[in-house]
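Data deposition worksheet. Section B asks for the primary sequence of the deposited chain exactly as it was used as input, without tags or linkers unless they were present during the calculation. Section C holds the resulting structure in token form. Section D is free text for depositor observations; keep each observation to a single sentence. Incomplete worksheets are returned to the depositor.
Section A, Depositor: J.P.
Section B:
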Amino acid sequence: MLKIEGLNVFYGTIHALHDINFEVNEGEIVTLIGANGAGKTTTLHSISGLIEPKTGSISFMGSPITGVAANKIVKMGLCQVPEGRRIFANLSVLENLEMGAYTRNDKHNLKDDYEVVFTRFPRLKERIKQIAGTLSGGEQQMLAMGRALMSRPKLLLLDEPSMGLAPLLVKEIFSIIQDINKAGTTVLLVEQNANMALSIATRAYVLETGHIVLSGDAKELAASEEVRKAYLGG
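Section C:
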């Protein structure tokens, strides 16, 4: 579904990603784990069209998307929930969801999709007219995810969905990610909470200073002594 080959990204003279290769198959939850500054967000931004790689190729559903405009990538069925939520703080919950559907031409189907989002995130329905900036951190994360789902993505990119959330809310968000996946959306998850990420993922890749240093079955990586020492506090 998603294939990245030989990806190199620079910020000026800084070589941020070094010959990155990985893939995401339809129906999977794939996670990228690594420390701060490892290149996780840069990888997602490259896929989403927010950063243009120096070299390498990215293909989605068999079509090359390297250099394609970000809004066109969303139309193709690939949507990102950014780190830090990035909701439209001055708009209402409903207006944020409307913004998520801005690339769609089938506006007559939006009512059904609102109901899908509200079924998954009941708290958003309770706050439908509330200004988004007044929501709690957890509710803002739910809104950011709901907004992305309004684009009807085939592949959902999630950047640090647990950041800044209380442990109970983290469990709830990860449970919702699993539900979204079971409903047919493939997920690429970037997450510093390696324990939680590996517990729900099919496969995982470990990034260190712009290099993929390990990859494999998520459960096997969770049991690996090397991964446990570096990322799981064991």
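Section D:
The mean pLDDT is 93.
The domain at 2-77+153-231 is CATH 3.40.50.300 (Rossmann fold).
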